[in-house]
Amino acid sequence: MFATYLIGLREGLEATLVVSILVAFLVKSQRRDRLPQVWAGVGLAVALSVLFGWLIEYTSTSLLSRSEDRELFEAITSVAAVVFVTWMIFWMRRAARSIAGELRGKLTEALAVGSLAVAGMAFLAVIREGLETALIFYSAAQGAAGDSGPLLALIGGIVTAVLLGVLLYASAVRINLSTFFTWTGALLILVAAGILKYGVHDFQEAGVLPGLNDLAFDITSALDPSTWYAALLAGMFNVTPAPTVLETIAWVGYAVPVLLLFLRPSRRKPAPATTTTTVAERGADTGAEAEAEADAATTPQRA
């Protein structure tokens, strides 16, 4: 359940920070009259994300009657989830410096067009996070079918993210978001490695890949699946005591190089001169740009 909580926390905080940037910009621009359109776009994005998650689950449980088809569907969604996780982590790391300015520019253009444009802009800013969350959650929760625990953990992560976003917006807390996103990004890479391993296993069960009975090792005697720590490792990172050769190759082949690339220090450009901003705007900017700047947790100042 920790894996799904982490997914909800990470994706939820990214979406919350995006919304904070939009709201802060409208408040500072004296355009509070457009806030209802922003919330309407956000609400529609959340609703469609929930619908997308339900559709994936419905397709797997109701539309696919053959077990081989269901295994193949789950394998494909697992690979897609890994692609989305990897892209999201590295995109956020690269684009964090400019995302706030890009959102303000797009919102300025939308304000000039009208209410529907504002709602549409807010919708597009949030829907990506929502669809990613639904897909990654479905793939990460496969091992707990029929259990409501992963769903509750995901909701808990999202609620935590929203509370953190509100507190950051109000400058009520100080969090080094650069460190936060680095650690959660590294943990999500390990979660994604487990999802990929699960997908390879599903491909093997569907008959697409060989080697279902070719075990890389068997440490069941040392890592009893019935113990709490074995269940924790399996639930978080899909580490099992008797994986196949292809599962092990997939896990290690993804986790090691991606972790090295993600944790590799990036070259920094000289930071531009800062100016004093409002509490709301600085709080939102800090959240959006924190992954690229280690000092993003400085206390916001009032104008």
From TrEMBL:
State the source organism's domain of life: Bacteria
Give UniProt keywords alphabetically: Membrane, Transmembrane, Transmembrane helix
- How is this protein named in the record? FTR1 family protein
Region called Disordered, residue ranges: 269-303
Q: Which family does it belong to?
A: Belongs to the oxidase-dependent Fe transporter (OFeT) (TC 9.A.10.1) family.
- Transmembrane segments in this chain: where? 6-26, 38-56, 72-90, 110-131, 151-173, 180-200, 245-263
Q: How does it sit in the membrane?
A: Multi-pass membrane protein
Pfam families, per database record = FTR1
Q: Where is the composition biased (Low complexity)?
A: 271-287
Q: What is its main location?
A: membrane
Extract the PANTHER family matched here.
IRON TRANSPORTER FTH1, PLASMA MEMBRANE IRON PERMEASE
Q: Which InterPro entries match?
A: FTR1/Fip1/EfeU (IPR004923)
Compartments where found? Membrane
- Nucleotide-binding recorded as keyword: no
